[in-house]
Amino acid sequence: MDAAQETRNKEAFRHAVVNTLERRLFFIPSFKIYGGVAGLYDYGPPGCAVKSNVLAFWRQHFVLEENMLEVDCPSVTPEVVLKASGHVDKFTDLMVKDLKTGRCYRADHLVKDYCKDKIENDHNLSAELAAELRHVLAVLDDLSEEELGAKIKSYGITAPDTKNALSDPYPFNLMFKTSIGPSGLSPGFMRPETAQGIFVNFKDLYYYNGNKLPFAAAQIGQAFRNEISPRQGLLRVREFTLAEIEHFVDPDDKSHPKFSEISNLEFLMLTREDQVSERPARRIPIGVAVLEGIVNNETLGYFMARVYLFLTHIGIDKDRLRFRQHQANEMAHYAADCWDAEIECTHDWIECVGIADRSAYDLRAHTDHSGTPLVAHEKYPEPREVEKLVIAPVKKELGLAFKGSQKMVVEALEAMGEKEAMEMKATLEAKGEADFKVCTLDKNVTIKSNMVSISKEIKKEHQRVFTPSVIEPSFGIGRIIYCLYEHTFYTRPARDGGEEQLNVFRFPSLIAPIKCTVLPLVQNQEFEEVARRIARSLTAVGISYKIDITGTSIGRRYARTDELGVPFAITVDSTTSVTVRERDSKLQIRVNVDEVASVVKDVTDGVSTWADVQWKYPTHSS
Amino acid sequence: MDAAQETRNKEAFRHAVVNTLERRLFFIPSFKIYGGVAGLYDYGPPGCAVKSNVLAFWRQHFVLEENMLEVDCPSVTPEVVLKASGHVDKFTDLMVKDLKTGRCYRADHLVKDYCKDKIENDHNLSAELAAELRHVLAVLDDLSEEELGAKIKSYGITAPDTKNALSDPYPFNLMFKTSIGPSGLSPGFMRPETAQGIFVNFKDLYYYNGNKLPFAAAQIGQAFRNEISPRQGLLRVREFTLAEIEHFVDPDDKSHPKFSEISNLEFLMLTREDQVSERPARRIPIGVAVLEGIVNNETLGYFMARVYLFLTHIGIDKDRLRFRQHQANEMAHYAADCWDAEIECTHDWIECVGIADRSAYDLRAHTDHSGTPLVAHEKYPEPREVEKLVIAPVKKELGLAFKGSQKMVVEALEAMGEKEAMEMKATLEAKGEADFKVCTLDKNVTIKSNMVSISKEIKKEHQRVFTPSVIEPSFGIGRIIYCLYEHTFYTRPARDGGEEQLNVFRFPSLIAPIKCTVLPLVQNQEFEEVARRIARSLTAVGISYKIDITGTSIGRRYARTDELGVPFAITVDSTTSVTVRERDSKLQIRVNVDEVASVVKDVTDGVSTWADVQWKYPTHSS
Predict the structure, then answer these.
(1) Domain Aminoacyl-transfer RNA synthetases class-II family profile spans what residues (chains A, B) (predicted)?
(2) What's the confidence (pLDDT) of residue A622?
C-alpha cells in the first residue's frame, strides 16, 4: 500500500469514528446552535459516562492504590502565581496576523502546511529544496521568532484565507486572562495546568503527610489554553481535563519501594539515542531500562510502568503505545529526564501523558517568589558537626562611616559567599582595610578591620534541609479518551448479508458508558413488566442500563447498543428466563430473570469472565 | 439563653469547626503562600475525598437511579449564549466605591450592616427609627439602585475602612470576563451556572432520548461568580461546584410516574403564606402538599422529596433542613413555583439547593436568539382538523404600489395577528381598501383588496409542537458540604479526664474521607507487617485507608482519626487477630486478620450494620 492510499484509509477510518461519536452524542461541538466555538466540545451522555469511568479508575489506580493526597484547587489563579511558574512570560505561541483582515494564525502551522504541501504536490521541486523543507519540518519546534519570520518571508507565505500579506511573528500568551474582583487591579488567569495548585500547597501537604518524603499529591480538574487557531478536532482544545500527579522525593534517593513489583514489565520505548539514529521503538523491561541508565531513576520508571498499566487496562492497544524520551533540546533546562506516553491514532503519535522529573524547579520558583520556604527536613540520627561561615558586621562603626548607606553596606557584607568573605578576611588581616563593591550603591567602599568580623565556626546540625525533587506524570484525559475511541472502534457486516457495515466500540466493561441494555424481544406488556423488574434490580446492584421498548427489530436494537459499546444486552423473550448477549462474540446464554442482574454485575465488575458464565449457563441460539 | 449568648455560642462552635477543618486540611485558603485571594478555597486531601464521595453518591442517586443524561460542557462560554440567558444584562450586584481609595463594596451589605449595628448597639434609637430599619432589612433584596443610594445618603453611610464618602450604587456584572482566541473580538465569560450548556443541547438530547418527554439531563461542574467582596467564608466563594438537573416535561402534564413512591414522605416546608404570617415551618407529607396545591405539581414535589432523601442520606440533620417557598416577588417572573432547600448552620438558614419550575423560559430564550427551534413534538393518535389563518400578500401589486418599501409592507402584513387580519379582511370586503400601519416604515399605507388575500382554511395537523417546561434542581455542592461539616461535628472529653475536648466528625461511612485507619498498637516489626498485609487487602477490596505507624499513643492516634471522621480503626495487637473500633461508640470487636478487610468493607458499604458485626464477633475491651 502506498503512502497516499494509507493516508486515505486513515482518513476514512477517522471519519467513520468521528461520525459515529458525533451522531451518538459521545461529543457535541459546544454551543452548536450558535455556530459553535473552535476548540470547545461538550461530552454528551455516553462520552460523559466514559470520561467519568476513566476518571474513577484513575482515582482507584493512582490515588487509592498509591495512597496519594488528592486536592482540588480553583481554576481562577492570580497573576503572581503564574508569574512565579513562568507562564506569564513564557506560555506563548508565535502568531502572525493577516495585515488586512486582522485574522490570526499560528506561525509554525503556516510554515508546516507550506512545506508539506510543496513536498507532496510540487512535482518540479528540486531535490535540494525538498531536503531543506524536510529539515525545516524536523526543526520547526525549535525555530525562533526571527527564524520563523524569515521562512515566511523567503517562502512568500500569505494568509491562507485571503492571500493577504502577513505580519512578522510575535508571541501570544495562551492563557485566558480575566480580572479578580471589581477593582480591575487584580489580574488573574484561568490555570493552564493543575500542578501549580499542588506546588503552592507543598508545605501543608508535607505536614499532612507527617513531614515525611516521598509522597505524592494528585489533582483532577479543568485546564485552559487559549489556542490561536485550534485544529485536529478533539485533540487540540481550549478547555480540557487534566489529571496530574506531583510525586515529591529526596533528590539524593529516587528509589521506589514498589519498583520490584513492576520491574519485569516491558513496553515500547523510543530512547533519545534511538530517535537520533532513526531506529524504531524497542520493547525493554523497565527494570533493565533503569539499570542501564536509559530511564533516569526508579521512581520515574515506576510511574512509566503504572501509566502503561493504566492505559492498557482501559483499552489502549499496547502495540500502539510507546514511551518517547525527550531530546535534550525539547526538555526544560531544569528537567532531569522526561518521557511522553504517546498513543498512535490516525493523526499520528499523540502525546497523551507526560512523565517528567522536574527536579527542584517548581518548589524553588515558588519559594523565591513567595518568601515561604518550600523545603523538606531530614533529621540526622545524631547531630553532625559542620563548619559554618559567620559574618558579623559591626553596625556602630559602619553607621559612623556610611551614615544613610549603612543598611546597604551591612546587607552586602552579609550576602558575601564563602570565597569572597575569606578573601576579605585575609585582606583585612594583612592590610587592615579592603575594597568592597556594594551593588545596591553601585560603587566601591573601603571596609576597615573594625567594621566586620569574619570567622568560621563549628556548629552542630540536627537536620538536613533541602528542596525535594518533583516527578510529574500529567494526563491529558480528553486525548486519552479520543485515542481509546479509535483503538476500540471496528465495523462488521450487518446480519442480513447486505453491504451495510455496523459500528462497534469494544470498550472494556470498566469503561463502557452503559453496562447493559434491556430489550423486550417484542412489544408486549408482560415482557415490558419483566424488563422493568430487571431494570430495578440492575439499579439496586449499581449497574447502569438503558431500556429500549421501541418496536424496532431486535437486530437493529443490538446494532444501536453495539454502537454505544454496551458490553451486554439482556433480551426478554419469556417471563421466567432471559438471554444475555455479549457484544463482540454476539454469543448468548440463558439465565433466570432473578439471577440476571447479579450475573451481569459479576461479569462487568470482573468477578467472573464471560467464559465462566458461558460454562455455567446454557447457550442460547437465536 | 439570651440572643447575645446564643450568638456567642454559635460563633464559638463555628470557630471550633472551621479551625478543625483548616488544621486537618479539609480546606485551605487558595494561594495561601501568596497571601490568598478572597473567596477562593482549595479542598485539601480529606475535603477532596468528602467532595468526591458526595458527587459519586449524587450520580448514583440522581443520574443512575433516574436514568438521566449526564453532559459535561466547557466553562468558557461565548457572549451570545449568556446574552440570550439574560446574564450579560442582569447578573449584577449593586456596588459602591470609596470615592478616595476606589475600594468597592456591595451596597446592600453596607446598608444591612448599618441597620443591624444600629438596632443592636444604639440604645438611644427611637422606636420609630428601629421599626424603619427593621423594615429596610426585610425588603433589602427588593431595593432598586436609586432606593439603596437614597438610604446610603440619608443614613450617612461611609466606607467602612476609611470613613470616606461613597459613590452612588451602580450595577457590577458578576461574571469573570475573558476573550476567546487571539483577536480580542470574541468576548467570553466563565459560566455563572452549568444549566445553559444543557439548554443549548436540548435538541440533540431530546433526539438521544428517542424524541420522548419527560427526560432529565444533568451536569456537574465548576461555576464562577466574581463577587464584589466575598464574606461568610466557605459559603460565598468565587468559584464553586454546581450539580444541576434540567428535567424537561410537557407543560400540560407535570405528573411524575414515580410520585407514589415518595408521596408519604414528610419534611419541613415553609410556605409562601406561612412566611407572610410569620408561622414556623411545618412537616407536611409531599403527597398532601401537591394535592392541596401548596407545591405546584408532582414533578416539582418528586424532586423536593428526592433532594430531601439525598441530603439526609449524606448526613444532613432532617430537623435543620427545610424547604422554603419563594415569594412571588423573589421568584423570576416566568417561574411557576420555586422552593429552596435551606440548611441551618451557625450562619443562619443557607440556601443549598434551589428547585424551580422555570416553565418554558430558557428554551424560548435560546430559540429566539439562535433561530433553532428548541421544541418537542407530540404525535396525535389521528390527525386533527384545525382552522388556520392564511395571509397571502400579492407581491406584484404591492411592488407596483410601494416599490422599495414592498418588503417591509409584505412582512408587516404576514405578521398580523388573527384579530387584526380578520378586521382588515372585513374592511377590504366592505370598502375595497384599508388603512394599515407599517411599524418598520413608521407610517400608515393604504392596502387595496387586490394586494392581499386573507382567509381561514381547515388544515390537518398530525402533531402538537410545543416548548417543554423545565424543572431545575440546582445543588451548591460546597455549601452542602460546609453545612454537613457543621451537622456532623461534635466534641467529647479526652479519656484521661482532663479538660481537653476531642473533635469528631460523625460522617456516614458513605461520605467519610477515609473508611478506616490501620494502627499497630506498638512499634514493632511483626505488627507493622500485619498492618501492611491488611492495608493491601483493603486496597484489593477498594476501601480507602490510612496507616499510622508513628509511635504516638493509641489514644492520641484514635483522636486524630476521629477528627478526620474515619468511621473504623483497625488496631493490630497480635499477628492473628485484630480489633475494629467504631468511631462514635468507641466500642471494639475482635476479628481475624484475614477477615478484617471484608468485615470493614461490608459495614462501610452498608451490607451489614455495626450492630450485625457486634453480634457476630466477640467484643474487645481495652
Answers:
(1) 15-493
(2) 63
Q: Are residues A339 and A270 in the same domain?
A: yes
Q: Which residues in chain A are closer than 8 Å to B185, comparing Cβ atoms?
A: 102
Cell of A580: 444475555
- What cell does B557 get? 492516634
Which residue, B173, B195, B228, sits at the end of a domain?
B173
Q: What is the largest CA-CA distance in chain A?
A: 110
From the list A25, A224, A238, which residue is nearest B204 (CB)? A25
Residue of B nearest to A240 (CA): B74
Contact B154, B111 (CB under 8 A): no
Is B581 a member of any domain? yes
Rounded average pLDDT per 10-residue block, chain A, 622 residues: 84 95 96 95 97 96 93 97 94 92 90 90 88 88 89 92 92 95 91 97 96 96 93 89 98 95 97 93 97 96 98 98 90 86 95 95 94 94 87 89 87 86 91 87 88 89 94 97 98 80 96 96 92 92 89 91 96 95 96 95 92 92 72
Residues A594 and A530 in one domain: yes
A52 and chain B in contact, CB less than 8 A = yes
In terms of domains, do A265 and A335 share one? yes
CATH of the domain at B565: 3.40.50.800
**Residue A617 Cα, gap to closest chain B Cα (Å):** 27
Residues A354 and A388 in one domain: no
- Chain A contacts in chain B segment 69-108 (CB below 8 A): 69-78, 80-81, 95, 102-104
Q: How many folded domains does chain A comprise?
A: 4
Contact map slice: A 343-382 vs B, CB within 8 A = 366, 369-372, 374
Tell me, what's the ipTM? Answer: 0.88
Instruction: Answer yes or no: do B535 and B599 share one domain.
Output: yes
Q: A 186-245 residues with CB below 8 A of B?
A: 186, 188, 190, 197, 200-201, 203-205, 208, 210, 217, 222, 224, 226-229, 238-239
Q: Cβ separation of B44 and A550 shorter than 8 Å? A: no
Range of the domain at A144: 92-173
A445 with A531, same domain: the answer is no
Q: Is residue A326 part of a domain?
A: yes
In a domain, B323, yes or no: yes
Which residues, 6 or more positions from A316, have their beta carbon under 8 angstroms from its beta carbon? A343, A480, A483, A484, A487
Distance from CA of A518 to the nearest CA of B (A): 13
A71 contacts on B by Cβ (under 8 Å)? 28, 42-45, 48
Q: DSSP character for A251?
A: T
Distance CA A11, CA A515 (A): 30
Nearest CA in chain A to B44: A71
**Residue A410 is part of a domain; what is its CATH number?**
3.30.720.200
Grid coordinates representing B605 are 458499604
Q: Please report, as a single letter, which amino acid is at residue B157.
A: I
Q: How far is A506 from chain B (nearest CA, A)?
A: 21
Provide the edge-to-edge strand list for the sheet that holds A104-106.
A104-106, A92-97, A170-173
Distance, CA of B573 to CA of B527 (rounded, Å): 7
**Strand-strand pairing, A69-70 and B69-71:** unpaired
